[in-house]
């Protein structure tokens, strides 16, 4: 069913009885052209673009729990393409353009909201680094503005301009950045992919990757063997564990990242704001909650929970930049499990096993990448060669030295 | 008709009336009241409006599970939205307002949303507002955002202060109800260190709400005497108004509300204190939360949880209404009926969903009309309950009532145990989830363990307390169990009877207006996993965190899918248990105390001299030393540079990292850590070092002084001091523990000054103690010595130059720093000395082409920086292998060069990009960027260091400096990175 004004009206009058499941509860067929392991935003987006843009419709997405149960639903919902390095900008900008047309593409309102992203800077050196980044963005045709302290005050008068430990001297603004409703992104892709014939199979965990003669032939699952000519792994957070099923060791370590929401309040913070003298990012959801986060928990972990010292550190950062938050209350916090790669950038590539493809290593950045990662991964799986925008995200870059280290901290995954 | 204060009874102090206002109207309550109990006592029923449909709402509960009675508390900068009136202690002068309504609480225009309910069902937003695309940000979203949200934040800085504190114990007991008190008594009597945390201002928990008798006395009295015994023990700390709100691996977080029961904190007291508690064992005795029942229009003011009705009756002396009815699927409703009778109010009807009356309540059955296997079919009342329609045995009956007590069973408060990730397990026995497993030494007790009879609670809590003590070697004496009358609140989950015509008015999540029909719709549209249900409908995401909503919705979904409740699933509680103010979690790390401020020894002197400071990491460095003759700060920097270049200047370089490396293997160690050969530095000399990361990129560069064969001092850059030390420690401890070497970071222990300029030797000569001579032959560049200066002050002297002039760095123990700085200025006066700041130092290092933090930014290699030749080829070192990767040695890499504008007055700024001339600037023509730039008073031109693709191969080429974010655009030429004295002759003269 296509969502339209007419359908809304009709169902308002008939008690909603005309609405139908947004995706079928599919059970696995014996074999598919492509099986995507992982029903998160990336996996479902991949299936959608495979079917829509690359003519591959005989596709299954298998998900060990419920779709969107991993990091797709455990993030701070920020979308942006304000990157520094030439290896990153075209990819995230491709994503930004896909975000901009997402609702019309999916016929599902994922509440993509281009409210703007404001990065604050606190020293001359940081302002110059922002200038370098903003200029790089402009050279790639991406919007970027470097603004001074007074312009920052105009955008966000509630910041601490008077007593801050690290004074605010300006900011980098990407007005096209913003937020999206994370769960709706998952559901929208699922519904659109399902409509094009993709089987979405929940509660179906991959337990083995079967290959013969160096070529993938299918996936062992808790619902039996599913044959496939090509298999795409899209299981960020669990990449190392799933890749181990194919005896692959990845340049990835796994860490928990906490995120937080406050109780719902009337509009207070309009755009996304990031604090540059610590590590803190915040926005306000349409429902009214402030959504924010900070640093990784610094030790490797698969537990979807965080530690107190990071919890406290995030609150300190919040108070350092927005002292008005003092009496607002944290309603809920949670931990997502991050694939932290050795250079802080993702991997979208073929693997040594023919027909087995890998998408992961998203570090903090997986949510905003959802459409671009899905599109580029679909391109790779369908055509066997990388999409130009994702061509730098190769597995062999650690051997060649073509690393994409946006933060410049090297092979120290917990510092990216 | 509405609630009222009973003539007597309750645990309030009727001799202490307190005045307060709600929506501007004045009321009076008593000490011991909550805001909710005081308003109910004054006959107020309407407390707020719901989130979406703006339905009138009253009080549902008597605690943190309250979804409806949310208010804005206090005014001005202390205004706090979404405060649960049921959890606010009344104080004199309290000011509260209703929220999320316009223009008034009684008449809320937004209630029109209720009429559009058929459209505004769950998931409505996802299906619409897509046409046309551009209208989302411009029209739809702003309207939605304004309508959403609950209360208003103050929008200004919170004037109150907060503290953080730590506590440790053998046994942490969470909750001082019957279970917590008994467990604490048992563990404490055995000798264990016990911390007992109680959310409320007094101990007793559920005992305060019920008319139980313990050892023949009213239960609250027993609680007081138990607390008195505990308080007298030296190994017990009782923390009232303290909620243990989150469990983390290794510790708990608790919030102590120090001053929330005062109009404002008294002097020197924080508003709240955030505790980190480390406990060897924990007894979770946080009680339980009652569930409402699902029936049409179950949200009207006047409909209240049965146990809450009893709390208001017995603890606060407030009747929820004058004409009450009871609707229950548990024995709890019968308890409430009995207490109503004791208060002289006879409920008009007790409707029980079950088939038979509980035997223990024959007294109630005699006095109150009972309807078994009954159901409430609907309710009436505009802004509060006026009647209920009841069905039993095929008949319908209408009762005019102003209060309805409902009981749908109890959820044990297991949230803290869930924080560890343990999956709750369903108990058919009590129709509720219990804590799964015993995660990290957390033992539930009492109602939190699903035990409801008081005798069993005491027995099991005592056993839990004894077991926790025994596990740590404290033998517990056999507990003396109090004697109690046996009570029970056994009950079952009432089945929901789907009715498409009415489901839209059966509220499941009161605050978010999620109804049974939303659950039906979620099911119909495939959102059947409990997590999908939650996310699609926003169920359980309200400020009461799903306490009253989740199980009802889960039961409905189970019914719709034909599965059991445990098959349908459960959502895990996430921290915190009770919402937690950000200010409290941050504690006193605010404003200037967000991070430590590091000041050098001459901070005060610099400040007196009028120097502005620049933040470098946590350091404050003097940036300029202006004098009245300087036209502006640029002139100051130019004058300071000229002083150094022609006479002598002094600057504070104490922020440089100083790492002592000592031991027989110190040289071996440094040879492995550094890409240069440190062991080749002779004692009494300095040497340049380069340090690479494991991945072959530059980590840092700087100088190493060697004072003795087994004693080196590494001078790391200010920016990288911490990471270099961390890296060196890692190498020593993890990679080569066998080496005989020790490290010590002594950055703050020494004050260090650079004395630079052609006249610097004379100044240094005047400082050092005789007979040391400072001449070109005796103490040439790169010399290092430990010596005394200024008549016996121990010092370190190195002949190092960062400025490009003959220069020295002299270090003394930090306590001598300020005095030495004054002495240098005194003895230097004769040579025309002037202090210079970080700005002039930066200009001179750019003139010399020395890379600094913006060049060694973690993304550049020694090759990029033109330092490849400094790397020793004949030994292994960290980063050697990976620095040889092909892409790291590509000639086309962006590599360090100098740039000068064709017009010397064209301003160059760091962060500008370098692009090809003659073509449109684009990603394809992007060559690199400027990393550092300055006006060079020496060259009378702007100059810059930058990274240009293949730059060193293009010296002399013209390029375009493109800086669109700052409007910069000019032509420049690529030159070698050293602009001044390229052969380095000046330091040697």
UniProtKB/TrEMBL annotation, chain A:
In terms of InterPro entries, this protein maps to:
FAD-dep_OxRdtase, FAD/NAD-bd_sf, Rhodanese-like_dom, SoxB
Q: Which Gene3D superfamilies match?
A: D-Amino Acid Oxidase, subunit A, domain 2, FAD/NAD(P)-binding domain
Answer whether the UniProt record assigns the keyword rRNA processing to this protein: no
Q: Which biological processes are named by the entry's GO terms?
A: tetrahydrofolate metabolic process
| Location(s), subcellular | Cytoplasm
**Residue span(s) of domain Rhodanese:** 34-78
Task: Keyword check for Chaperone, yes or no.
Answer: no
Q: What is its EC number?
A: 1.5.3.24
Can you tell me which family this protein belongs to?
Belongs to the SoxB family.
Q: Which NCBIfam families match?
A: soxB (TIGR01373)
Q: What is the protein's given name?
A: Sarcosine oxidase subunit beta
UniProtKB/TrEMBL annotation, chain B:
- The record places domain Aminomethyltransferase C-terminal at 895-981
What keywords were assigned to this record?
Answer: Oxidoreductase
The record ties this protein, via Gene3D superfamilies, to: 2Fe-2S iron-sulphur cluster binding domain, sarcosine oxidase, alpha subunit, N-terminal domain, BFD-like [2Fe-2S]-binding domain, FAD/NAD(P)-binding domain, Probable tRNA modification gtpase trme, domain 1
Occurrences of domain GCVT N-terminal (ranges): 603-875
GO biological process: what's one of them?
tetrahydrofolate metabolic process
InterPro entries, per the entry: 2Fe-2S-bd_N (IPR042204), BFD-like_2Fe2S-bd_dom_sf (IPR041854), FAD/NAD-bd_sf (IPR036188), GcvT/YgfZ/DmdA (IPR028896), GcvT/YgfZ_C (IPR029043), GcvT_C (IPR013977), GCVT_N (IPR006222), Sarcosine_oxidase_asu (IPR006277)
Domain SoxA A3 positions: 504-587
Family per similarity comment? Belongs to the GcvT family.
Q: Which PANTHER family match?
A: AMINOMETHYLTRANSFERASE, AMINOMETHYLTRANSFERASE, MITOCHONDRIAL
Q: What is this protein called?
A: Sarcosine oxidase subunit alpha
């Amino acid at each position: 069913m296509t969502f339209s004004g007419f359908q809304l009206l009709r169902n308002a009058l008939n008690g909603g009885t005309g609405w139908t499941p947004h995706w079928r509860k599919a059970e696995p067929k014996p074999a598919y052209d492509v099986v995507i392991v992982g029903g998160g935003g990336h996996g479902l987006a991949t299936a959608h673009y495979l079917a829509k843009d690359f003519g591959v419709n005989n596709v299954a997405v298998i998900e060990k729990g419920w779709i969107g149960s991993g990091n797709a639903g455990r993030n701070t919902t920020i979308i942006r393409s304000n990157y520094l390095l030439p290896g990153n900008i075209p990819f995230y900008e491709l994503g930004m353009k896909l975000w901009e047309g997402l609702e019309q593409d999916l016929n599902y309102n994922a509440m993509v909201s281009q409210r703007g992203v404001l990065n604050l800077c606190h020293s001359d050196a940081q302002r110059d680094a922002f200038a370098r980044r903003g200029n790089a963005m402009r050279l790639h045709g991406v919007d970027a503005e470097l603004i001074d302290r007074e312009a920052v005050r105009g955008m966000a008068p509630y910041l601490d301009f008077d007593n801050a430990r690290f004074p605010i001297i300006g900011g980098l603004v990407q007005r096209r950045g913003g937020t999206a409703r994370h769960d709706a992104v998952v559901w929208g892709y699922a519904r659109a992919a399902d409509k094009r014939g993709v089987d979405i199979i929940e509660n179906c965990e991959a337990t083995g990757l079967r290959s013969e003669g160096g070529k993938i032939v299918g996936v062992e699952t808790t619902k039996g063997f599913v044959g496939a000519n090509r298999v795409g792994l899209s299981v960020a957070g669990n990449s190392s564990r799933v890749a181990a099923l194919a005896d692959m060791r990845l340049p990835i370590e796994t860490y928990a990242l906490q995120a937080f929401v406050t109780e719902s309040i009337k509009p207070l913070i309009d755009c996304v704001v990031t604090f540059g003298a610590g590590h803190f990012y915040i926005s306000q959801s349409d429902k009214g909650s402030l959504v924010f986060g900070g640093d990784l928990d610094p030790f490797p972990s698969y537990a979807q929970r965080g530690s107190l010292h990071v919890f406290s550190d995030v609150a300190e950062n919040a108070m350092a930049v927005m002292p008005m938050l003092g009496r607002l209350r944290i309603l809920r916090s949670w931990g997502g499990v991050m694939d932290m790669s050795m250079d802080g950038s993702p991997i979208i590539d073929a693997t040594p096993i023919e027909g087995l493809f890998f998408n992961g290593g998203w570090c903090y950045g997986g949510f905003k990448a959802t459409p671009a990662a899905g599109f580029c991964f679909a391109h790779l799986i369908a055509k066997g060669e990388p999409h130009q925008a994702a061509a730098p995200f190769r597995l062999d870059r650690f051997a060649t030295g073509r690393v994409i280290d946006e933060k410049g901290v090297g092979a120290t995954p917990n510092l990216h | 008709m509405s609630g009222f204060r009973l003539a007597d009874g309750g645990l309030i102090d009727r001799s202490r009336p307190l005045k307060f206002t709600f929506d501007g109207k004045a009321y009076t309550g008593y000490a011991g009241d909550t805001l909710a109990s005081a308003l109910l006592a004054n006959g107020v029923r309407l407390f707020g409006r719901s989130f979406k449909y703006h339905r009138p709402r009253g009080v549902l509960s008597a605690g943190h599970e309250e979804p409806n009675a949310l208010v804005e508390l206090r005014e001005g900068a202390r205004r706090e939205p979404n405060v649960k009136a049921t959890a606010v202690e009344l104080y004199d002068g309290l000011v509260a307002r209703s929220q999320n309504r316009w223009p008034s609480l009684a008449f809320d225009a937004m209630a029109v949303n209720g009429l559009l309910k058929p459209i505004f069902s769950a998931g409505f937003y996802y299906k619409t507002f897509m046409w046309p695309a551009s209208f989302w940000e411009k029209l739809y979203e702003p309207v939605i955002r304004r309508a959403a949200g609950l209360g208003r934040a103050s929008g200004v800085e919170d004037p109150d202060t907060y503290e953080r504190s730590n506590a440790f114990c053998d046994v942490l007991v969470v909750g001082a109800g019957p279970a917590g008190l008994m467990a604490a008594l048992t563990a404490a009597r055995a000798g264990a260190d016990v911390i007992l945390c109680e959310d409320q201002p007094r101990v007793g928990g559920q005992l305060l709400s019920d008319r139980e008798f313990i050892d023949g006395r009213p239960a609250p009295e027993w609680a007081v005497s138990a607390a008195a015994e505990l308080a007298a023990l030296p190994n017990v700390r009782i923390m009232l108004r303290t909620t243990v709100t989150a469990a983390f691996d290794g510790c708990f977080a608790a919030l102590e509300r120090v001053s929330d029961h005062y109009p404002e904190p008294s002097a020197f007291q924080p508003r709240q204190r955030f505790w980190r508690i480390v406990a060897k064992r924990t007894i979770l005795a946080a009680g339980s939360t009652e569930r409402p029942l699902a029936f049409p229009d179950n949200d009207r003011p006047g409909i209240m949880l049965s146990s809450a009705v009893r709390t208001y009756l017995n603890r606060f002396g407030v009747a929820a209404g004058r004409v009450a009815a009871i609707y229950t699927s548990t024995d709890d409703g019968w308890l409430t009926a009995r207490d109503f009778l004791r208060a002289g109010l006879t409920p008009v009807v007790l409707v029980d969903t079950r088939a038979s009356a509980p035997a223990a309540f024959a007294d109630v059955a005699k006095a109150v009309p009972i309807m078994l296997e009954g159901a409430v079919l609907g309710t009436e009342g505009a802004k509060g309950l006026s009647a209920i329609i009841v069905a039993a045995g095929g008949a319908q009956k209408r009762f005019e009532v102003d209060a309805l007590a409902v009981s749908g069973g109890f959820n044990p408060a297991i949230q803290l145990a869930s924080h560890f990730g343990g999956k709750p397990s369903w108990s058919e026995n009590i129709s509720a989830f219990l804590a799964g497993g015993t995660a990290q030494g957390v033992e539930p007790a009492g109602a939190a363990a699903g035990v409801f009879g008081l005798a069993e609670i005491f027995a099991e809590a005592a056993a839990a307390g004894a077991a926790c003590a025994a596990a740590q070697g404290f033998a517990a004496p056999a507990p003396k169990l109090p004697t109690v009358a046996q009570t029970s609140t056994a009950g079952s989950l009432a089945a929901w009877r789907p009715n498409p015509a009415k489901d839209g008015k059966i509220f499941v999540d009161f605050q978010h207006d999620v109804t049974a029909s939303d659950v039906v719709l979620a099911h119909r549209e495939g959102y059947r996993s409990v997590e999908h249900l939650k996310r699609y409908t926003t169920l359980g995401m309200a400020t009461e965190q799903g306490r009253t909503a989740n199980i009802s919705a889960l039961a409905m979904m189970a019914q719709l899918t034909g599965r059991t409740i445990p098959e349908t699933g459960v959502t895990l509680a996430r921290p915190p248990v009770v919402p937690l103010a950000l200010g409290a979690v941050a504690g006193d790390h605010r404003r200037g105390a967000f991070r430590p401020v590091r000041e050098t020894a001459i901070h005060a002197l610099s400040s007196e001299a009028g120097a502005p400071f620049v933040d470098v990491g946590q350091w404050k460095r003097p940036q300029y030393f202006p004098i009245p003759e300087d036209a502006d700060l640029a002139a100051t920097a130019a004058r300071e540079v000229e002083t150094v270049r022609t006479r002598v200047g002094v600057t504070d370089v104490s922020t440089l990292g100083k790492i002592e490396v000592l031991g027989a293997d110190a040289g071996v160690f440094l040879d492995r850590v550094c890409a240069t050969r440190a062991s080749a530095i002779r004692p009494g000399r300095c040497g340049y070092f380069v340090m690479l990361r494991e991945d072959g990129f530059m980590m840092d560069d700087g100088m190493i002084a060697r004072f003795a064969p087994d004693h080196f001092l590494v001078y790391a850059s200010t920016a990288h001091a911490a990471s270099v030390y961390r890296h060196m420690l890692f190498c020593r401890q993890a990679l080569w523990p066998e080496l005989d070497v020790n490290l010590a970071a002594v950055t703050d222990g020494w004050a260090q000054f650079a004395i630079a300029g052609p006249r610097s030797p004379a100044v240094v000569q005047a400082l050092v103690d005789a007979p040391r001579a400072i001449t070109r032959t005796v103490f040439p560049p790169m010399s290092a010595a430990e010596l005394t200066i200024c008549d016996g002050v121990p010092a370190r002297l190195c002949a190092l130059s960062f400025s490009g002039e003959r220069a020295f760095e002299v270090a003394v123990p930090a306590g001598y720093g300020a005095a030495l700085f004054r002495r240098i200025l005194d003895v230097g006066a004769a040579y025309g000395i002037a202090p210079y700041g970080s700005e002039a130092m930066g200009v001179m290092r750019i003139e010399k082409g020395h890379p600094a933090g913006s060049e060694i930014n973690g993304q550049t290699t020694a090759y990029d920086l033109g330092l490849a030749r400094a790397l020793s080829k004949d030994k292994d070192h960290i980063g050697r292998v990976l620095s040889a990767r092909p892409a790291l040695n590509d000639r086309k890499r962006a590599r360090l060069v100098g740039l000068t504008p064709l017009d010397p007055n064209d301003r160059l700024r760091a962060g500008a990009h370098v692009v090809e001339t003659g073509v449109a600037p684009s990603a394809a023509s992007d060559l690199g960027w400027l990393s550092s730039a300055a006006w060079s008073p020496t060259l009378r031109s702007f100059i810059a260091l930058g990274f240009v693709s293949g730059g060193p191969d293009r010296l002399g080429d013209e390029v375009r400096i493109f800086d669109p974010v700052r409007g910069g655009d000019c032509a420049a030429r690529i030159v070698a990175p050293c602009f001044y004295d390229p052969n380095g002759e000046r330091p040697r003269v």
